[in-house]
Amino acid sequence: THFGFRDVPEEEKETLVGGVFSSVASSYDLMNDGMSLGVHRLWKDNFVSSMLPRLPPSYHQHPEPANPSSVRPANPKFKCLDVAGGTGDIALRILDRAREKFASRDVEVEIVDLNQGMLDEGRKRVAKTLYYNTPQIAFTHGNAQSLPSHIADNSIDLYTIAFGIRNCTSIPAALSEAYRVLKPGGKIGVLEFGKVSNPLLREAYRQYSFQFIPILGKILAGDADSYQYLVESIEKFPTQPEFAQLMRDAGFQTGQMKEGRGGAWRDFTFGVCSMWTGVKA
Ligand code: SAM
């Protein structure tokens, strides 16, 4: 079709994906709110709180030394990598949670994204926060499938990718890079559109996405094609158990192959959105 990128060779897809996100970068927040009726905020809140239920004890502020003249040891940093982090939605939630819930500023998030437009929007946004100009947040231009070389093997405590892995030309390549850079015991969290399992709801959701989203894209962002691409990429993405299997194939330990507590994934909003978690053994 002249709309989607269905028949496009993989190499060209990356350039096209770049184009999509350049053209949507400035209207990105507006569109997310418009398309999901604001619910993406709740998905992201839930995602971050389940990826960071607590901070490992070693990352909590050391108490004041008994002898004030002794040198206080530097706290280790809890290192997060937010890939396809775009405008900083996940990164800022991680930092806020660490600070508000655990009184910790020893968490650092590096955002990696393929698109300069999104990184620029993210930088602008961070400039309005108290993390601005601190080592707590960094932006790097790079690809999930071959992460920038300064990110070493076994160096990351928490790897997140939200609504980004769907756009990767090779999901296995992105997952194996995640595995490589995580520390043993480090966690991966993937947030992505899932598949709605209830047949009635699935049909309603299909109608909504194919009819309404491109129109909304046209009205809010003046760009129907980019949003048509998003809808098609959601359709093509693996089902929840299929994606869990890809995580296992990459070496991650997951929960059982089921949804919910103790399972490899958790559905939000009937499976419109889903999160998968895994641990590097
Ligand atoms: N994580 C953010 C959020 O949840 O709001 C942004 C999600 S946005 C839908 C997808 C992002 O993935 C875009 O910023 C895009 O540039 C980025 N992206 C697409 N393919 C990528 C790749 N191969 N490597 C890194 N980033 C990529």
Automatic annotation (TrEMBL):
<dbReference type="Pfam" id="PF01209">
    <property type="entry name" value="Ubie_methyltran"/>
</dbReference>
<protein>
    <recommendedName>
        <fullName>2-methoxy-6-polyprenyl-1,4-benzoquinol methylase, mitochondrial</fullName>
        <ecNumber>2.1.1.201</ecNumber>
    </recommendedName>
</protein>
<dbReference type="GO" id="GO:0031314">
    <property type="term" value="C:extrinsic component of mitochondrial inner membrane"/>
</dbReference>
<comment type="similarity">
    <text>Belongs to the class I-like SAM-binding methyltransferase superfamily. MenG/UbiE family.</text>
</comment>
<dbReference type="InterPro" id="IPR004033">
    <property type="entry name" value="UbiE/COQ5_MeTrFase"/>
</dbReference>
<keyword id="KW-0472">Membrane</keyword>
<feature type="binding site">
    <location>
        <begin position="143"/>
        <end position="144"/>
    </location>
    <ligand>
        <name>S-adenosyl-L-methionine</name>
    </ligand>
</feature>
<keyword id="KW-0489">Methyltransferase</keyword>
<keyword id="KW-0949">S-adenosyl-L-methionine</keyword>
<feature type="binding site">
    <location>
        <position position="87"/>
    </location>
    <ligand>
        <name>S-adenosyl-L-methionine</name>
    </ligand>
</feature>
<keyword id="KW-0496">Mitochondrion</keyword>
<keyword id="KW-0808">Transferase</keyword>
<feature type="binding site">
    <location>
        <position position="113"/>
    </location>
    <ligand>
        <name>S-adenosyl-L-methionine</name>
    </ligand>
</feature>
<dbReference type="GO" id="GO:0008425">
    <property type="term" value="F:2-methoxy-6-polyprenyl-1,4-benzoquinol methyltransferase activity"/>
</dbReference>
<dbReference type="GO" id="GO:0032259">
    <property type="term" value="P:methylation"/>
</dbReference>
<keyword id="KW-0999">Mitochondrion inner membrane</keyword>
<comment type="pathway">
    <text>Cofactor biosynthesis; ubiquinone biosynthesis.</text>
</comment>
<keyword id="KW-0831">Ubiquinone biosynthesis</keyword>
<comment type="function">
    <text>Methyltransferase required for the conversion of 2-polyprenyl-6-methoxy-1,4-benzoquinol (DDMQH2) to 2-polyprenyl-3-methyl-6-methoxy-1,4-benzoquinol (DMQH2).</text>
</comment>
<dbReference type="InterPro" id="IPR029063">
    <property type="entry name" value="SAM-dependent_MTases_sf"/>
</dbReference>
<comment type="subunit">
    <text>Component of a multi-subunit COQ enzyme complex, composed of at least COQ3, COQ4, COQ5, COQ6, COQ7 and COQ9.</text>
</comment>
<keyword id="KW-0830">Ubiquinone</keyword>
<dbReference type="InterPro" id="IPR023576">
    <property type="entry name" value="UbiE/COQ5_MeTrFase_CS"/>
</dbReference>
